[in-house]
């Protein structure tokens, strides 16, 4: 149920942002809110505290964010509190930001390799991704996992391309186990 609510709220604010031509503005405001929420545990404690009234929570949001974000984004937060959906705020904003990135054709790629890639190798990976997808730009996230032995694993959304040696060896081992000796 929470995922459904977050989806509905994120879609609503996204549609408004597109309709009003304020996609970048709302995206930046969502970043500000998420940054504040992650850096300040007091916000979460206050919003989740059962003895703090909805009205006090709404006033807190208006006082804290009302001067730095638009009335529309403040209104979304206040509405979510009024509807007892304050626990979905972070997920809603993350979903909204993901929708904006898709709308702007900006992908996020997670690349795992056994050894660190050089800048030249990273550039080749980026160029290959741009050539084989519909994205105009990528936010690249690299990590090193020596247990891969070689090759790489690339994840974009729910698509995974695994060319790691570890996976190939695991598949070969599985195939060899299936062979029955007579």
TrEMBL record:
Keyword terms of this UniProt record: ATP synthesis, Cell membrane, CF(1), Hydrogen ion transport, Ion transport, Membrane, Transport
SUPFAM superfamilies tied to this protein: N-terminal domain of the delta subunit of the F1F0-ATP synthase
Record's keyword annotation contains Transport: yes
Family: Belongs to the ATPase delta chain family.
Keyword Nucleotide-binding in record: no
Stated name of the protein: ATP synthase subunit delta
Function: F(1)F(0) ATP synthase produces ATP from ADP in the presence of a proton or sodium gradient. F-type ATPases consist of two structural domains, F(1) containing the extramembraneous catalytic core and F(0) containing the membrane proton channel, linked together by a central stalk and a peripheral stalk. During catalysis, ATP synthesis in the catalytic domain of F(1) is coupled via a rotary mechanism of the central stalk subunits to proton translocation.
Entry's localization field: Cell membrane; Membrane
InterPro entries linked to this entry: ATP_synth_OSCP/delta_N_sf, ATPase_OSCP/dsu
Organism, scientific name: Lachnospira hominis (ex Liu et al. 2021)
UniProt membrane topology term: Peripheral membrane protein
Primary localization class, coarse: membrane
């Amino acid at each position: 149920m929470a995922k459904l609510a977050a989806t509905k709220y994120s879609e609503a604010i996204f549609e408004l942002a597109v309709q009003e031509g304020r996609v970048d503005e709302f995206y930046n405001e969502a970043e500000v809110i998420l940054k504040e929420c992650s850096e300040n545990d007091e916000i979460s404690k206050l919003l989740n505290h059962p003895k703090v009234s909805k009205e006090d929570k709404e006033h807190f949001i208006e006082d804290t964010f009302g001067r730095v974000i638009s009335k529309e984004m403040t209104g979304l937060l206040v509405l979510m509190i009024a509807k007892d959906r304050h626990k979905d705020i972070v997920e809603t904003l993350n979903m909204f930001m993901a929708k904006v990135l898709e709308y702007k054709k900006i992908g996020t790629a997670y690349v795992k390799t056994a050894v660190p890639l050089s800048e030249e190798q990273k550039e080749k990976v980026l160029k290959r991704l741009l050539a084989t997808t519909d994205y105009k730009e990528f936010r690249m996230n690299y990590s090193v996992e020596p247990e891969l032995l070689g090759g790489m694993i690339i994840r974009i959304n729910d698509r995974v391309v695994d060319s790691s040696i570890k996976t190939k060896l695991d598949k070969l081992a599985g195939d060899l186990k299936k062979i029955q000796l007579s």
